[in-house]
């Protein structure tokens, strides 16, 4: 796990995107001048690749005969950078802007910690007050500072362990970062969230349908990670929660409601089970409120969290 001196470290950047429009332009303009940059495009039709090339960045177009995934895109960029004798690589999604001081702050975190493979900071929503859905994303990004089990899409990696781990698993549709971080931790590496601004993300979610699709994708990720790495307690717990609130409890309510047609007293059992949902919202919302979230948002967040569990 030997590392080059941080002061002499060479950093590359992999940007991935598909039809990100102005968000991609802001992303590419936020990259420190002189960086080794590869932009990987997943079949954009908005001129994204041409804009990246106009800025002098190398562009890779993913093969359109295969399904697009973030994992495939990041691996394609990593493959291009692997020959450039870099020490670190910053992964960033095309709908994010890098904070001006992020790279230096992240590199400083690697000093004297040769077993640290991944560093990430605070990803914020650019417009958290534009919709409840954007604000939910901003809350999701605010994970605790310190050693972590996994990072998100934006993070600074030591390139050597990343390559040795085989990069991202290109077969995974969602949840590729936790999968990669698990393999890195199993190899003896550590992941850390530091108290520094990293990126500004523009979820641009203003409709319930957008949030609904995103939640379904998250549920798919939990299920796939559990199938691949069932021994990880956190994924086991997430899948169990989805099965409980989205399957077992509604199923019992329906059965009791139907049985009440023959024995009306059983209808009370259905009603009592139905009350479990507002009680769960109250429990989660009160915990969030006690942790510092505004009262209204705490209970709104709890409601969406339970709703996500029910349909994932």
Q: Helix and strand layout, with pairings?
A:
Blueprint: E1 11-17, H1 22-29, E2 36-41, H2 48-54, E3 58-61, H3 70-81, E4 88-93, E5 96-98, H4 102-109, E6 116-125, H5 132-141, E7 146-148, E8 155-158, H6 159-164, H7 176-186, E9 190-201, H8 208-228, H9 233-259, H10 266-274, H11 276-290, H12 295-311
Parallel strand pairs: 1-2, 1-4, 2-3, 6-9
Antiparallel strand pairs: 4-8, 5-9, 6-8, 7-9
Helix pairs in contact: 8-9, 9-10, 9-12, 11-12
**Count, helices:** 12
Structural class by helix and strand composition: alpha/beta
Q: So what's the overall shape? A: elongated
Question: Span from first to last CA?
Answer: 40 Å
Strand content: 15-25%
Concise description?
By secondary structure, the protein is α/β, with parallel strands linked by helices. It contains 12 helices and 9 strands.
Description of the structure:
The chain has 312 residues and is of the alpha/beta class. It has helices spanning 22-29, 48-54, 70-81, 102-109, 132-141, 159-164, 176-186, 208-228, 233-259, 266-274, 276-290, 295-311, and strands at residues 11-17, 36-41, 58-61, 88-93, 96-98, 116-125, 146-148, 155-158, 190-201. Strands 1, 2, 3, 4, 5, 6, 7, 8 and 9 form a nine-stranded mixed β-sheet that branches. Strand 1, helix 1 and strand 2 form a beta-alpha-beta unit. Helix 9 (233-259) runs antiparallel to helix 10 (266-274), helix 9 crosses helix 12 (295-311) and helix 11 (276-290) packs across helix 12 (295-311). The chain is elongated, with a radius of gyration of 22 Å. The two termini are 40 Å apart. The mean pLDDT is 89.
